[in-house]
Design goal:
Layout: E1 10-17, H1 21-32, E2 35-39, E3 43-47, E4 53-58, E5 72-79, H2 83-96, E6 102-105, E7 109-115, E8 121-127, E9 135-136, E10 139-140, E11 145-146, H3 149-156, E12 169-176, H4 181-190, E13 194-199, E14 203-207, E15 215-218, E16 234-242, H5 245-257, E17 262-265, E18 268-272, E19 278-283
Parallel strand pairs: 1-4, 5-8, 12-15, 16-19
Antiparallel strand pairs: 1-16, 2-3, 3-4, 5-12, 6-7, 6-11, 7-8, 9-10, 13-14, 14-15, 17-18, 18-19
Helix pairs in contact: 2-3
Domain VOC: 10-127, 169-284
Keywords: Metal-binding
Organism: Peribacillus saganii
Length: 284
Amino acid sequence: MKFQSYPNTFVSHVSLIVTDIKRSLSYYKDIIGFQVLNETSQKAILTADGITPLLTIEQPENVSAKQQRTTGLYHFALLLPNRSDLGSVLYHFLQIGYPLQGASDHLVSEAIYLADPDGNGIEIYADRPSNTWKWENGQVSMTTERLDAESLLAEGQGKTWKGLPKETVMGHIHLHVSELKKTEEFYCKGLGFDVVTRYGGQALFISTGSYHHHIGLNTWNGIGAPTPNENSVGLRWFSLVLPNEAKRLEVTEQLQKIGASVDNENGTWITRDPSGNTIHLLVI
């Protein structure tokens, strides 16, 4: 997973608010195939390899249901190491009869879409080889076409589903935002991402290292969509891994120059985008 490693800046960990921790933990273990790294009565940290945290689910004391038409999570995306792994996952969902929300061929990748019991969006995908991606003037060609499920299932045939492969990483995150101009400034001038695809005036996709996207940003919940309540179901925060401490200091200065704040809260560097999405800035 070369695009989710040094020297790129990439998403590594997503934290979600859920209404029922027991129900969500069962879902993420039995349906999605995570392992539990750490667990308390109200919080669980989940992993694919038994070492690396990928997803945190938490039930706050005063949790409220998911709010509609707000900023926040559209989906988080788990990147599998091989196409055959995606075929195995698809077969698993078909076997247990779990409803999917979509299945698409994006040219650069193939993806399955679903949602957890609280409506948090999930993408599970496999990339096509990067040397097959088509670039023109710094923009990568992405589209949404019908997934060739038959071919995918054939490739996964004989590969028994045993949960998420240990090489699974957090491939990207896709966010609802309130507008795109200030958002683009924050993520590109501030955090140092490049725009690699624009969908009219409603969505843009950004990355480092010429990935097809580490972050998707859209206004599909409406221009001026409000930030959700603090403890409503959805995104609590996500983390970005920066290549080194010097880069984190550089990014901090860039963010401050455009009027964004960066705070050190108990050793964690935290910023918030113009739509209120919380980001942890990590160096590993």
